[in-house]
Amino acid sequence: MRVTALAGGTGAAKLLRGLAACMHPRDLTVVANTGDDAEIWGLHVSPDLDTLTYALTGRLDLARGWGAADDTFHALAAMGTLGGETWFRLGDRDLATHIFRTRALRAGVTLTGVTGTIGRALGLRIRLLPMSDDPVRTRLQTADGWASFQDYFVRGRARTQVLGIEYAGAEKATAGPAVLDAIHTANAIVVCPSNPVTSIGPILSVPGVREALAQTNAIVLAVSPIVSGAAVSGPAGDLMRACGLPVAPTGVARAYTPWVDLLVIDRGDAGYSHPILELGAEPVVGDILMTDRESEIALARLVLASVA
Ligand code: FO1
């Protein structure tokens, strides 16, 4: 079975680790969010691409959920001594990835191309595709004006109330060269339990992606990132509220209708099954919290059994 997943960073990485353990990695394509990408110290940082690459090659710092394991922060400290910016913590090992990517982009290589090169060098066995080679940037409107995602999330610690969201550049962007084909030719599409607004939303904003999801013959399954009325991690709850979506599995269903076929929800949220059906998706009830490798694999098995 060929599976194409839509993914953000940390939450997605857990399910993808499970899927990669349950199927031939060659049959797994991941379309990743690049709406969080930022320029830090003049370098192109792609947090979700790197989180997924590190997680699927055993290099992720599991405690933080981002950056490389066993990293040090000597360059960051030196930057601080110089009076440079240190609010976005780039580790020393991680820095090599950003320098390598930035040099390739400046030499004219596409983001898809350099993501493939980095993945091959690190032993990544699945196919990882940025959603677009063009800049699409998630921006959040607060009382102080518009902020980039990393300004809101890391610098501002996601504490400011969000009034609006935009995906700047989306209308002019083209989907990555293999992205639409990966949606059309898959047997199943898996929307990872990522933030519907700032992780999956940017992917959906790329022209052609929603249409491909609506037209594909693949069965489309999403896993809810909301359990018991709150996001499993991160600011998904606040951001869904800001978009007028209920912070509940029904809010996730609303974000993904009319193209989602199945929505996997937590056992404790089984009471939402009927409203989900009314929204046009079929609920699948299971244990969806991934706290260790076994639960990642168990959820991956449930996902694969549901789409089979
Ligand atoms: N998240 C933080 O909360 N603080 C950081 O200093 C930080 C640095 C960082 C460096 C590289 C990288 O790839 C990710 C990093 N993140 C950091 C994570 C991050 O930006 C977000 O988790 C994602 O954008 C959300 O998917």
Describe the 3D structure.
This protein has 308 residues and is of the alpha/beta class. The protein is 41% helix and 19% strand. It has 13 helices and 14 strands. It has helices spanning 10-22, 47-56, 74-81, 92-106, 111-122, 149-155, 179-185, 196-205, 209-215, 236-242, 249-256, 273-278, 293-307, and strands at residues 3-7, 28-32, 38-40, 43-45, 127-130, 137-142, 145-148, 164-168, 188-191, 219-223, 226-227, 230-231, 262-266, 282-286. The strands form four sheets. The chain has a seven-stranded parallel β-sheet with strand order 5-2-1-9-10-13-14, with helices on both faces. A hairpin with a 2-residue loop joins β6 (137-142) and β7 (145-148). α1 (10-22) runs parallel beside α2 (47-56) and α4 (92-106) packs across α5. The longest helix is centred in the N-terminal third of the chain and has 15 residues, at 92-106. It is globular, with a radius of gyration of 18 Å. The model has no long low-confidence stretch (mean pLDDT 96). Ligand FO1 binds at residues 8-9, 36, 45, 47-48, 50, 66-67, 88-90, 94, 150, 153-154.
Percentage of helical residues?
40-55%
Span between N and C termini? 8 Å
**Strand pairing plus helix content: what structural class?**
alpha/beta
Unreliable segments of 5+ consecutive residues: none
The major beta sheet can be summarized as: 7 strands, parallel
Broad shape = globular
Order of helices and strands: EHEEEHHHHEEEHEHEHHEEEHHEHEH
Question: What percent of residues are in strands?
Answer: 15-25%
- Give the beta-strand count: 14
Query: Please, what is the average pLDDT?
Result: 96
Give the number of helices. 13
Associated small molecules: ligand FO1
Biggest sheet strand order reads: 5-2-1-9-10-13-14
Instruction: Report Rg.
Output: 18 Å
